Amino acid sequence: MKKVKVLIIGSGPAGLTAAMYTGRAMLEPVVIVGDQLGGQIAMSSEVENYPGFDEVVSGQVLIDHMVKQAEKFGAQLVYDHVKSVDTSNGTPFTVETYKETYEVDVLIVTVGASPRKLGIPGEEKFWGRGVSTCGTCDGFFYRDRPVVVIGGGDSALEEGLFLTKFASTVTVVHRRDSLRAGPVLQKRAFANEKISFVWDTVAEEVLGDEEVTGVRLKNKKSGEVSEMDTDGFFLFIGHIPNSEIFEGQIEMDEEGYFITDSLMRTNVEGVFAAGEIQDSVYRQVATSVGQGTAAAMSAERWLAEHEA
Ligand code: NAP
Question: Which of 176, 179, 210, 216 is deepest in the core (most CB within 10 A)?
Answer without folding.
Answer: 179
